[in-house]
Amino acid sequence: RIVYLNGEYIPEEEAKVSIFDRGFVMGDAVYEVTAVIGGKLWDFEGHVKRLARSLNELEMQNPLSREELLEIHRELIARNPEFIDGGIYLQISRGNAGDRDFAFPPADVKPTVVLYTQAKNGLLDDPKAKKGIKVISVPDLRWHRRDIKTVQLLYPSLAKMAAKKAHVDDAWFVEDGFVTEGSSNNVYIVKNGKIITRPLSNDILHGITRAALLRYASEAQMTIEERPFTIEEAQAADEAFFTSASAFVTPVVEVDGKPVASGKPGPVAVRLREIYLEESAKSAI
Ligand code: PLP
């Protein structure tokens, strides 16, 4: 695999980052994952905008323009011809700051920019989209700036491991009695035809797939209610589902051991997945 590191396209074995990099020492880095289907980028503009926002919130330099980012994404697709479907991972850290120090390094320290392809063939036909997934709930013990997409993913990793141990697919975070989001996705329930999802705030990541889906749903005259919901409401809902760049729209059929309605994917989630795939394919670049 050919990867991108600080302006160079090199084989992955040659891509090395300093032990003093703040991404490594302090988790001082942000990231994005953009889906690639048939060699085309999905929701690219949304990911670029959110990257700029994350960097800005952390007072980190934004080293690359939209055009430069697009060129790097396309170059990686071109230089890795076996890569057709999957995602492109992008990470920008505050760079190699020398000896460990809590204070940010001087402005002339350059950020470390890494991008690489992650192939996942058959991404569109993941059997989980047909069967739906099962989730457990765990307390949301993350920091309170979840709107910034940082690489500090230790707690989401622990939550995923808890889900694995419970023989389910994912964990939903709960705070003050309400669901915030999934370990790496935004979550929704459907009740009496209404799509219910938590409003944007610092409590959740502002999902790019969420933004696109809510736009398509409102264009299709579906009713959206942005408000928090509880685990009990999810268990009593007609349907549940989640969104993320790598899983699009995927039904959730069990929450904390209780089936959602019949325990099968519901018609709204299935329809929303179709709409999302159709519309995103049209605007892929
Ligand atoms: N929420 C969290 C915590 C995430 O990590 C992600 C994706 O990585 C999402 C939501 C979904 O965001 P997007 O649709 O931009 O992939």
From TrEMBL:
* Reactions the enzyme catalyzes: L-isoleucine + 2-oxoglutarate = (S)-3-methyl-2-oxopentanoate + L-glutamate; L-valine + 2-oxoglutarate = 3-methyl-2-oxobutanoate + L-glutamate; L-leucine + 2-oxoglutarate = 4-methyl-2-oxopentanoate + L-glutamate
Keyword hit for Amino-acid biosynthesis:
yes
Q: So, what pathway does this thing act in?
A: Amino-acid biosynthesis; L-leucine biosynthesis; L-leucine from 3-methyl-2-oxobutanoate: step 4/4; Amino-acid biosynthesis; L-valine biosynthesis; L-valine from pyruvate: step 4/4; Amino-acid biosynthesis; L-isoleucine biosynthesis; L-isoleucine from 2-oxobutanoate: step 4/4
Q: Name one Pfam family in it.
A: Aminotran_4
InterPro entries per the record?
Answer: Aminotrans_IV, Aminotrans_IV_CS, Aminotransferase-like, BCAT-like_C, BCAT-like_N, Class-IV_PLP-Dep_Aminotrnsfr
Q: Which residues form a coiled coil?
A: none
Q: Which Gene3D superfamilies match?
A: 3.30.470.10, D-amino Acid Aminotransferase, subunit A, domain 2 (3.20.10.10)
CDD domains assigned: D-AAT_like (cd01558)
EC number, UniProt record: 2.6.1.42
Keywords for this protein: Amino-acid biosynthesis, Aminotransferase, Branched-chain amino acid biosynthesis, Pyridoxal phosphate, Transferase
Give the GO molecular function terms: D-alanine-2-oxoglutarate aminotransferase activity
Cofactor(s) demanded? pyridoxal 5'-phosphate
**Would the keyword Transferase turn up in this protein's UniProt record?**
yes
Biological role stated in the UniProt entry: Acts on leucine, isoleucine and valine.
Matching PANTHER family: AMINO-ACID AMINOTRANSFERASE (PTHR42743), AMINODEOXYCHORISMATE LYASE (PTHR42743:SF11)
Protein name stated in the entry = Probable branched-chain-amino-acid aminotransferase
**Can you name the source organism?**
Thioclava kandeliae
Q: What is the lineage of its organism?
A: Bacteria, Pseudomonadati, Pseudomonadota, Alphaproteobacteria, Rhodobacterales
